[in-house]
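To illustrate the input format used throughout this study, we show a single complete record. The first block contains the structure-token representation of the backbone; no residue identities are included at this stage. The design step must infer an amino acid for every position from geometry alone.
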């Protein structure tokens, strides 16, 4: 019993130290993201207010309540995933405890204690989300957080190497295989982007405002670009073998460009479905939907090495800035869409050769 309490405290202190170790970088990224969001809200505040005023108070309340429950759902899943990572990673505390002679009962009790701590953190986030979305914490919110946390924690994700098919093919096929079958965060973000693209045409049935449909398409493209950014950041630390095998910068960029083109074309096509079939708005108001949905994933290979390709947080900020300025400009004038190939060409030339320094 004396081993359980100090071990739990040690593990929690380790997690705090991991956050504190990169506190300056994380705090800077948080401030930068807050500044970007504030700038975006300030620019579109008056414009969005006039558009949102077209909705009834009941629809606005429903949107805030839905966003609140979506936040509870996502937060619970993220916290459960982090707890699962602490419990079941290959270098977890269990291997150390077994080496020093701890019993299986003590290890099980420590696992239960950590799961309870994670559950408490998940529940406490409901109060924070209620302040953000101006909603009262309800029994349904606590029940949703509890169910999502417990189910996600109970699902054991094991990647059995014996079931992974032996693979051979081109570098493009290999990267696509890694992205779709091995990179869990990248795969999750890309799936979220495709799901959002499917939701845009469905929401177009109820949303009769061109601006909101355009912003939804831009958000879908942004989430999809995050998945590609994460995949590139995870791939670069292991690129030494490809470099020694003679892979050039142009070949590296072209391989990722083929994958980016696939996702950009997919979500652009799905979002464009709302223009053709599911809305009564005139087409001239929604001509830019495929460009807004697809231009950010399309630009990722040309922007990934502009600063530091291994830093996914930094490149996420780059994509947010790019989407903020080019996306809002594209909503105002069609000339930006015409200039996209020029922008991409200049960006590719600027980062030329940086693959070997990444």
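Output of the design step:
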């Amino acid at each position: 019993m004396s081993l359980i309490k100090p071990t739990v405290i040690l593990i929690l202190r380790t997690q705090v130290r991991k956050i504190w170790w990169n506190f300056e970088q994380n705090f800077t990224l948080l401030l930068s993201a807050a500044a970007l969001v504030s700038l975006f809200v300030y620019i579109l505040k008056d414009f969005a207010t006039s558009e949102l005023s077209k909705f009834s108070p009941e629809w606005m309340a429903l949107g805030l309540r839905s966003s609140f429950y979506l936040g509870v759902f996502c937060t619970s899943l993220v916290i459960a995933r982090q707890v699962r990572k602490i419990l079941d990673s290959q270098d977890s505390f269990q291997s150390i405890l077994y080496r020093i002679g701890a019993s299986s009962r003590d290890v099980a009790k420590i696992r239960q204690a950590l799961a309870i701590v994670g559950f408490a953190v998940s529940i406490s986030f409901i109060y924070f989300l209620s302040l953000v979305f101006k909603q009262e914490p309800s029994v349904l919110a606590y029940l949703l957080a509890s169910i999502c946390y417990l189910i996600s924690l109970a699902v054991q994700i094991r990647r059995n190497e014996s079931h992974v098919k032996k693979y051979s093919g081109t570098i493009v096929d290999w990267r696509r295989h890694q992205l779709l079958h091995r990179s869990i965060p990248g795969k999750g973000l890309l799936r979220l982007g495709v799901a959002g693209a499917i939701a845009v045409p469905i929401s177009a049935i109820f949303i009769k405002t061109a601006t909101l449909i355009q912003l939804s398409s831009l958000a879908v493209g942004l989430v999809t670009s995050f998945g590609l950014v994460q995949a590139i950041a995870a791939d670069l630390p292991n690129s030494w073998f490809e470099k020694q095998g003679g892979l050039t910068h142009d070949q590296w960029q072209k391989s990722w460009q083929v994958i980016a083109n696939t996702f950009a074309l997919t979500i652009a096509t799905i979002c464009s479905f709302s223009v053709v079939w599911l809305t009564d708005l005139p087409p001239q108001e929604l001509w830019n939907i495929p460009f807004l949905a697809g231009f950010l994933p399309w630009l990722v290979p040309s922007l990934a090495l502009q600063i530091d390709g291994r830093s996914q947080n930094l490149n996420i900020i780059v994509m947010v800035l790019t989407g903020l300025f080019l996306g809002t400009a594209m909503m105002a004038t069609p000339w930006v869409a015409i200039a996209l190939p020029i922008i991409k060409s200049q960006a590719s030339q600027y980062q030329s050769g940086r693959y070997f320094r990444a």
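Structural context for interpreting the output: Residues 1-17+52-159 form one domain. The chain has a mean pLDDT of 77.
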